[in-house]
User: What shape does this take?
Amino acid sequence: MDVFVIEGGRKLSGRVRINGSKNAALPLMAAALLTDQPVTFRDIPDLSDIRNMRRLLAELGVQATDADEPLPCVTLRAVDETEVHARYDIVRTMRASICVLGPLLARRGSARVSMPGGCAIGQRPVDLHLRGLEALGARITLEGGDIVATAPGGRLIGDTVFMGGPFGSTVLGTANVLSAAVLASGTTVIECAACEPEIVDLASLLSKMGARIEGAGSPRITVRGVESLGGAEHSVLPDRIEAGTFMCAAGITNSEITLDNCPLDAMMSVTDRLDAIGVHIDPLGSSDDPLRRSCRVSCAETLKSVQITTQPHPGFPTDLQAQFMALMCLANGNAVITEKIFPERFLHVAELARMGANITRMGATAVVTGVKELAGAPVMASDLRASAGLVIAALAAHGTTVINRVYHIDRGYEHLETRLGALGASIARATEEEAAHLMPGAVA
Assistant: This one.
């Protein structure tokens, strides 16, 4: 397995373009199952999760055609609609595979999808997905680790669906039910729907394909089912989590960088906390699309500790919790970070402590007492966003940090080492054997 070798202490400068969102792209790609017409996507990031989704769709009869435009472009078209089994071998690699369940059920009348895998960040049951589809008339059983769903009579029936759970609404569950409802007969009302920008992006694509959707981005989405959907062209929403990660990287290194294609209007909770910390985000120029404007990231020499509570959108995103925790490790005072989406999402705490961080965890809350400096050390990436947090800490640490299991990072960040290197960071990808010579005991 590859590792990252990072020599900390370097300031960053320059500009970087934010790529299309992984969290938006995966359910968007699954929506190609809803039609036999071509669906073209621009700005799909080159990530291992995206490649796995392409493999899964290929097994489900979807043909992919790539093109080089100013931005990467892929056209998906379902050419064989007989296969309905999303096998364990692929589904286990990423949780977002569950997104094919709704489209398969709505278009093909049945689906067999293995229970999903993904990051080890705590329990994430799919009961809300299944309950929502059952409300539309689906019959669901569990057989051999697979979710088996059928639509009696071959078509789902619109109804009122409540998507609330103990930790709020579910983004992937909302995407599944929304995708299923567009081909259901009658009207579907999704109550307590996820309000995330990625749901708005999915609704935008489905509307281009001919769906009739109102209220996306609010807690109530109304869908009036149609008989069939057509093809469409769509540019993927910029990745707000990637943008926030680069903002934290600039903050912890006291640097100034410029982000292009930055979805600032989808990041108000993030920029609010950054401003309180002392990391300033200044929009540059104007854009016809406010989600895709440029901004300058700069920061004060001394960072301040803040309180952060993760919440469903428009609250602070759980996918930036680890990155902000790394940032708080070098801030003055005590930061209090409370995780209300995935209460067990703290595997990065022990690894940051190996670098000299002072963090005390109490249940779903972590108290971070700022230290004067972090020290490079061999650390272990446990999940996608925790990995990004370790990279951020390593950029500011004194000495060399070796981050093991960076395949987690490859799931959500395209060529992160190359892009950070272009900004002036000392970061390189290496094999385990190469890293062992640099730092004995670095590879676990």
